[in-house]
């Protein structure tokens, strides 16, 4: 199993088939564009920094609505949430994607803008790898990001959607999240390769570089 980060909320997960989450076009947000080919693209919401499916090569299947089915080898479930703390009145809806590949369960929170209730956390269920926004402004902040991690209790928490060099969006830095993390933090580089048996029993943080 391989995970690579293409900046912001865009990740590439590969294990025979390839899933890409929330692709951006690069130039619209001041980053290098993703160069990636995929079988499946998951879009958490229809904002320009998350919905650039056209940049992904390989004629992938694009999922941009609520589903509960297996597509291109990934067992997918979606959960409706909001892009803000006002029930979507400010920035609309947001989809959480839970998807399983080869026995590893991933959960991508998209642009989550509010705390998760206990009922929703229970519905999401066990998570191996959690992608959590932590940059504030348009999403939850670092403190709320860590509270979300503590509720879901993934084996691996991967922060995303925070300030990067060159990024044209005014987000808060990664340190706002890491300052709350009282667990092992590993800087894994731009990509990491692992098998399920490598994953820890209790939560650790993987920080990707871009």
Report the CATH topology name: Metallo-beta-lactamase, Chain A
Number of domains: 1
Order of helices and strands: EEEEEEEEEHEHEHEEE
Integer-rounded radius of gyration: 15 Å
CATH architecture heading: 4-Layer Sandwich
The class by helix and strand makeup works out as: mainly beta
- CATH-assigned homologous superfamily: Ribonuclease Z/Hydroxyacylglutathione hydrolase-like
> What characteristic shape results from the CA principal axes?
globular
* Widest sheet, order of strands: 6-7-8-9-10-11-14-12
In DSSP terms, counting alpha (H) and pi (I) runs of 4 or more, how many helices?
3
> What's the end-to-end separation, in Å?
19 Å
Number of DSSP strand runs: 14
Low-confidence stretches: none
Which percent range describes the beta-strand content? Answer: 25-35%
Keywords:
210 residues; mainly beta; Metallo-beta-lactamase, Chain A; eight-stranded mixed beta sheet; 3 helices
Task: Tell me the layout of helices and strands.
Elements (H helix, E strand, L loop, with lengths): L1 E4 L5 E5 L1 E5 L18 E3 L18 E3 L4 E4 L2 E9 L10 E9 L2 E5 L9 H7 L4 E5 L8 H11 L3 E5 L14 H4 L6 E5 L1 E3 L10 E5 L2
Parallel strand pairs: 3-4, 4-5, 9-10, 10-11, 11-14, 12-14
Antiparallel strand pairs: 1-2, 1-13, 2-3, 6-7, 7-8, 8-9
